[in-house]
Amino acid sequence: MTLKLCLAGATGHVGQELVKAILASGDLKLVSGVARKSAGQTLIGDARVFGSVGEALKAAPADVFIDYTHPDAVKANLLAAISAGCHAVVGTSGLSDADYADIEAAASKHGVGVFAAGNFSITAALLQHFAAQAARVMPHWEILDYASDTKPDAPSGTARELAYTLGQVTQPKWTVPVESTKGLREARGASLNGSQLHSVRVPGYYSAVQAIFGDVGERIELRHESNSYAPYVAGTLLAARKVGSWKGLKRGMTALMDLG
After folding, report:
1. If we measure between CA atoms, which residue out of 225, 232, 165, 229 comes closest to residue 197?
2. pTM of the entire structure?
3. Which domains are delineated in the chain?
């Protein structure tokens, strides 16, 4: 069976790589793209580009909708796809836990599957898996994420997902509670699901996330780093192939890789 895909952000950096990979596959077909500035154009393989998700799915019904757009657009795009009865894969960062709760509710209502990952690479999934193991025995940790100064959202989707995962395991301990910080409270970073997150945005970085765990007299650091879009392509297409097998929302590549 050939899966029909609609790709939002089809003309972006990741989108262009996905278009090539979809065309090279034997079981996937790109039936439409969404890119507001490129509406009316045709992608490689004769898939037409539309200005909105609603227009694209009405003109060319799809089995799976994939979003690699912008934090300001992703939630509305997903809700439009879900309401059209389309399964969805989310590669765009910037969604909060509250946003995911709304998406979960919509997906369950319409009986479709949604998969979201802050990072679709294998090493990011391994970082998340190993960090969850570390959190069970190491009582203190913090999370850092690194990206170019052009990245509009903070923390990154990878860091948000890691904080969510660790929050499902346990909560870190604090010798000095964050709210008791003397000086600039902001210097301790942002609090999310119990973890403290620190986002670095300077030229020279592409994408990296680091989890630092410590106890008296010892420390372990886990770090994922990528320097191209290539690691995201295979993971995204794996998710597209599997997302129709459940209803509701699943988060994180560990759910697709049987890592727990």
Report:
1. 165
2. 0.78
3. 3-116+229-255 (3.40.50.720), 122-226 (3.30.360.10)
